[in-house]
Amino acid sequence: MAYLHHLLSVQPLLALFLTIALGYVVGKIKIGSFVLGGIAGTLLVGVLIGQIGINIDGNIKAIFFALFIYAVGFQGGPQFFHAINRRSLNQLASSFVMCGVGLLCVILAAWGFDLDRGLAAGLAAGGLTQSAIIGTAGDAITQLGLTPAVTKIMETNIAVGYAVCYIFGSIGPIIMVSWFLPMVMKWDIRQEAIKLAQTMSGGNSELEPGQFNALYETTTRVYLIMAGSKASGKAVAAIDNDLSDAAVESIYRDDKIISLTDDTIVQTGDKVAITGKKGLIKDAIDYFGPETLAPAGMQVILENREIILTNRRLSGRQITDIHDTTPSKTRHGVFLIAVKRMGLTLPLLSKLPLKSGDELHFVGSPIDLDRVQSKIGYKISAAAVTDFIFFGIGMTIGILIGMIQFRLWGIPISIGSGGGCLLSGLFFGWLRSVHPRFSALPLGASTFLRDFGLAVFVGIVGIGAGPQALVAIQQHGISLFLLGVGVTLIPQIVTFFFSYYVLRIQNPIEALACVAGGRSANPALAALLEKTGNATPVVAFTVTYAVANVFLTLWGPVIVGLITKNAVP
Fold first, then answer.
1. Residue in 197, 220, 226, 370 with CA at minimum distance from that of residue 299
2. 93 vs 103: CA distance, rounded Å
């Protein structure tokens, strides 16, 4: 044990990476449907390892938190700014109410139970399950000009409050959206999800698990052109126009593949490869002739391509509207197979409105995809290299914003480098979505910065808090836990009924999704998706999640500013 203590003391980075590794192992342990998660696991393991007394340079913590928070803003920028519009005004208001009531509960709890700034911020981080508050509040505390001893105690109290309140903070929203609120309202979640899916699909029936909609599945089949078939003697462009949602991809004639253009005439005896939606292709025998096996050497090269929607004229329009108003000459041979928003797969239904920043997944030939790409947005793989010029500028601006101080009711408040980098990331993420040539930060790179940055930050917080954490838990554990229960449940109950009766968000699935998204509760969304059996909650969740992720993060310095009590050494 002495050797281990010496080794970790001499090289504290070993302790850090050991904490992250063990933390994520602990975070994967599943109890029923509850999973602690890697971040909470890392904090708890860090507290345990920190008992032996390890010092890690605080600048490392600050750097990685800034990277994490910038990546969060960058990824959420397009959806955050798009959420602020009239179409989603009631959902937007619901998210504001959730964030506001959550802040109010934390402030009242801190005033009523005489909590110091660190405990109040930890209560918010754990009770509202917003890990980023640990960083933004801690950053604000360091700028108060207090003694190092007091600052250290309050930073420890943030970690303690988070650890004590986080578990119920995660479980509470799951209980609320998957059991308590549906029970109170007497809703059958599965049936309500089926009804919503039918509405979004234009009246089509909801599918059961294991079933799929063939209209949205693409396939390629080969047909033998018979004498007298409708396709014989027609040009390829005319056939594509007739088929609308299918396209000629290849023609095999006289034992070889012929060069294909829009003016190529299909002849009797040709073997024609057709790509399209299964619901149409299966009936193509009436148009071409009998289906046949592909001859040796015949190839159809298609591509899966992911395109980010940046065309403002398409934003806010439904899939079916875009399809029906786009000429078949433009859209032929290109098939939409999936839509993702903020990393979540949306239900691919005809009445789903697309939004700027959506990730659209297409299948088609490279030539056809190139034709439509310029009308939609930019290819994700085209941004495979990080634009370090704009990345450096974004981080610089964020840190400068964090240095600005202002007064709220006479109280000096600064959002700190964390809040500044969040705002900067939001702006540059939005800039990337509307001007694809600038500020490239690939999804894989930003996801790594977000996840690894937070893991490093929380690991260092846990290690640093280790020696004092157990004492703080003994002093405040029970009371903090009960306060955390209140901070977790009260905002959800208030927001749900306010949204339902005042904002008129009365579709059960949308109302529950707003509760989960309004407190950025991913575990609650997972539980709701399990109950619904489809992806209908995702649309409302993304709107409220984008707003909550920003404002809950910014509550860190606000809490530090409004709570005036400091810890006593």
1. 220
2. 15
**Contact in structure between 333 and 368 (CB atoms under 8 Å):** yes
Phi, psi of 377, deg, nearest 5: 175, -130
Range scoring the smallest mean pLDDT among 81-85, 395-399, 497-501, 564-568: 81-85
Mean pLDDT of the chain: 85
* DSSP 8-state class, residue 353: B
* pLDDT beyond 90 at 97: yes
What number of CA atoms fall less than 13 Å from residue 372's CA on the CB side? 28
Q: Beta-strand (E) ranges in 310-449?
A: 334-341, 344-345, 359-364, 377-379, 405-408, 411-414
**284 residue type, one letter:** A
Of 145, 124, 144, the closest CA to residue 134 belongs to 124
**Edge-to-edge strand list for the sheet holding 256-257:** 256-257, 246-253, 271-277, 218-224, 291-292
Contacts of 250 (CB under 8 A, 6+ apart): 257, 260, 272, 273, 298, 299, 300
Q: What is the pLDDT of residue 158?
A: 92
The order of strands in the sheet holding 359-364 is 344-345, 334-341, 359-364, 303-309, 377-379
- Across-strand partners of 246? 276
Q: What is the mean pLDDT of residues 507-526?
A: 91
Work out whether the CA dihedral 292, 294, 299, 300 comes out positive or negative.
positive
Q: How far apart are the first and last CA of the chain?
A: 30
pTM of this structure: 0.78
Secondary structure of 321-349 as H, E, C letters: HHHHHCCHHHHCCEEEEEEEECCEECCCC
Q: Give CA 559 to chain center in angstroms.
A: 26
Closest to 166 (Cα-Cα) out of 53, 335, 27: 27
Supply the angle between the helices 443-501 and 12-27 in degrees, to the nearest 10.
50
Bridge partners of 318, per DSSP, are: 353
Q: Alpha-carbon dihedral of residues 501, 503, 504, 510, nearest 10 degrees?
A: -110
CB atoms closer than 10 angstroms to residue 472: 23
Of the candidates 450, 526, 557, 512, the residue with the CA atom closest to the CA atom of residue 76:
450
Per-residue pLDDT at 1:
63
At 278, give phi and psi (nearest 5°). -60, -35
Residue 344 region, left (φ>0) first, then alpha (ψ -120 to 50), else beta? Answer: beta
Q: Quick one: tokens of 426?
A: 């939001």
Please give the Cα distance from 185 to 177 (Å, whole number): 11
